[in-house]
């Protein structure tokens, strides 16, 4: 028996919910569904993302529409196209056994003509982003004269994104005699202002503590030195083989370069940011949902509306500026009753911000250590040994066993195991075997742009001779030291080559690298495409034909002082 029927849901819809895996209503669904089915009072519902709010308002909307009337009767406003599409898909599923239900998504980044035609053909429920919907209203492409219910989904997100003017225009085009439902994770002053202006004596439904997080999320933080930020992120991901989550960065450039760095380190990551076209965004999300990508590196704006139930981690590469943003980020995990982990990378002076978050959310944040190199090696070795212990020998190997036994007859068991592990973990042991402890704030371990694999070196005391290479791309093409090293790590031929000083100018970059690999570097990197421009790499020489290198740290050169042990970008 489906328990949704006990709170007034039609058997046809309850049957669909059973097929979709909904066996019992969540707390927000228990409170909201009966209230919406039996009354027309305006409602403010405060609940975190992932608590089941889409079904809470979507089921009543589907159940209450007049299927004989093809005019829009209900409107759902969402902050992003991703959430718009997700909500429209869910509502269509809820009503698939009710003949005649039509849900029309309306969002930017897609042909307006197709959406206009869909509205003309008739749809009882419209799910829209504010910008595109106002465009259609201004063009007279849609009439809301029959709208009786409006849902503002993720209201705090929409208002934070600057949609107040669009929401105001849309609500003015809808009859005043309507039911308005506002769903929000937080009750900010601007949300309260909108509620006061456009809702009539709303009653409040509160799920969990006001402005608090959900119980299924563990909140953790690691204290790091600023130059170790990327290395700490890389180790957190490398140490958790089951990680499937989102890394939040502050800027589009950080998002792009961090994703490229992770890919260069052999991790399945992709960037999601505002510079991607709609088709590119959809392709990134398709791969992420299919788990061919397990780490999505995103800005706050780009990740709004990402609704994937089984994400188990969120990592804050930089702390957000306010509690509401932290709440929305963290709410990407711990959804639908599953457990999730939210990890923040913080500098020493940011500990007070963690304490402020604890007070605001009413949650305890656990301090965690950044995994050491030994931790990662142990984890990888134990995982392989467990796999070897539990696996069955494949039948197709049988014809070769005699040959294998004869070849290895001179090795005892211990030596064989040692050699197999050394072969399997060669790269891991080289990368992490002697890696510094990043939990010591004075650690000089790899930092931003200084990753496992290709390493930066000052060249002093290493025995490495460096050659300078000039590259015909620079800051104007989105290049920076971190991205440049990512290019080295993305190619096996240039991976694990010592890198010296880097200088990035507007249209070019200078990098010094191990002289022994000069030909490999020129051959491998030349011809790659960055921001539509083909890379050309040349060995830099002076007027006498001698190879040159960027200025040595701490020495004057042409009137410029290059700071010791720092990457200089210009």
From TrEMBL:
For the Helicase ATP-binding domain, which residue ranges apply? 34-205
Question: What spans are recorded as compositionally biased (Basic residues)?
Answer: 546-570
Which residue numbers delimit the DEAD-box RNA helicase Q domain?
Answer: 2-30
Keyword terms, alphabetized:
ATP-binding, Helicase, Hydrolase, Nucleotide-binding
Lineage: superkingdom? Bacteria
* PANTHER family on file: ATP-DEPENDENT RNA HELICASE RHLE, ATP-DEPENDENT RNA HELICASE RHLE-RELATED
Family statement: Belongs to the DEAD box helicase family.
- This protein is called DEAD/DEAH box helicase
Q: What species does this protein belong to?
A: Desulfolithobacter dissulfuricans
Lineage summary: Bacteria, Pseudomonadati, Thermodesulfobacteriota, Desulfobulbia, Desulfobulbales
